[in-house]
């Protein structure tokens, strides 16, 4: 078990800087999710921590030891890859046992650990199979098993659910959460899916253009986004941002409610798109040239063209500087 | 839409295959009968076949010695090719300063005919003191540029994440090559083995230049010597040719599937 410290970590590919001085403290046994759009540097940062990518400057420490110059094998990290990265010419058992063979672990101990991990992940019946004989979800489980058997100081997950279909992704997400309860190891999980980030993380690190926009618990980044980018990135549909003189006023679609009082509504406009989702309805409306989305109870608005008046609790309204994008 | 029948295509392919196989059949038939190859009309089916020509080849000339020399030289060439081509192919999958120039240099070297390099190759071999040795015969065949590129293409088709996973799992560069890349590049290995076998097995000019004693001669040299020493040896000559051809054919037939895949790897998306 180990904490991780990143100090002014930078990465450039030639002239192009992709990570601009990241500072981060991750506590022992903490589950931290790096989230951000494609190209924001989250995977690069993870690969730097794994030792698969050199760092241009800065310092990375694992368990108090600076690992900048260490090979991946000497950092005691285990990684789960987006495409599973199972060795196709080895059985599931061999895949899981592979790293331990090179670390001088006794055969009996290897057998015990693989058996234990297979039991945790419910893949005991698959250990003699080749990876090509497994489904996507099973492969992902094997990939996680391969990480677990190592009993490393740190788990690194690089978008592990991206290749799965939507239903399986939800299922595997739950399994990862369950797994966390059983194997409490410091974990960094990279994803571009904010739902994964919100549901799995102790803390979320939101990255944009190689910089950290905000670090916080899922509630913090949702309730008090530090920047316009975070406000727009966390939450689906994203926060509505309405320009007002020198500020941007933000309100989440789920915080807009049907206006029924006699006072003036917070927002009003004509519905342009109505998307019934069953449990609720997403209504897009045009407010003085700005597209606003509201999540309303079902059947309140039936079709586009209807007039909609909405109210909002002032406590749920956010203000951002129009120039810097920072929260006011 | 109705598909065009496949039989005309197959008929043409069978006809072409038969045409290609006729010379081999003729060599085999003549080696078993010793009949005059100019006889008219030619006999299609061998009459009174026998193995005396093969016995003559084995005992009249030091065929076993030639065979052993060819086997040793070919084994050295195959081992050298697998070792050096794998290392070079893997190195070329990496990004490093000057990589493009090295690739260009290697490609341009492929344009130089072997005959043009014989004198420097001979001088180097002499400087190394390995003239008239198996190593001397095998030396220029220890690495071939085309095979380096076959390995490079094959290694590049292995997902990067597998190499990353192996690195995280604790493997060094050589182990990554041996435990991950080579098992996933069977086609490239088969292609290397077959091509090196063919080139080494059939090499004539270089062994002729670097060998001094008959004891070091390989099968192609032995064949030439055989032609010059004996007269009226059509049957024995053809028996010799069959004995030279058989190992190459056997290796090709054993690995033809991987060989064809290796030559066409990267040609199709998949």
3D architecture notes:
Chain A has 328 residues and is α+β, with helices and mostly antiparallel strands. In chain A, 25% of the residues lie in helices and 33% in strands. Chain A contains eight helices and 18 strands. Chain A has a six-stranded mixed β-sheet, with helices on both faces. A five-stranded antiparallel β-sheet of chain A has the order 13-17-14-15-16, with no helix packed on it. Chain A has a four-stranded antiparallel β-sheet with strand order 2-1-4-5, with helices on one face. In chain A, strand 11 (240-244) and strand 12 (247-251) form a beta hairpin. Chain B is mainly α and 270 residues long. Chain B has two domains: 1-50, no CATH class; 51-263, MetI-like (MetI-like fold). In chain B, 70% of the residues lie in helices and 0% in strands. Chain B is built from 13 helices and no strands. Chain B has helices at 7-33, 52-60, 63-92, 99-109, 118-127, 134-138, 145-156, 160-169, 173-181, 186-202, 205-210, 219-229, 234-264. The radius of gyration of chain B is 23 Å and the shape is globular. The two termini of chain B are 27 Å apart. Residues 266-270 of chain B have low confidence and may be disordered. The chains are: A alpha+beta (328), B mainly alpha (270). Chains A and B meet through strand 6 of A and helix 8 of B.
Which labels suit this protein?
heterodimer, A: 328 residues, alpha+beta, 6-stranded mixed sheet, 5-stranded antiparallel sheet, 25% helix, B: 270 residues, mainly alpha, MetI-like fold, 13 helices, disordered C terminus
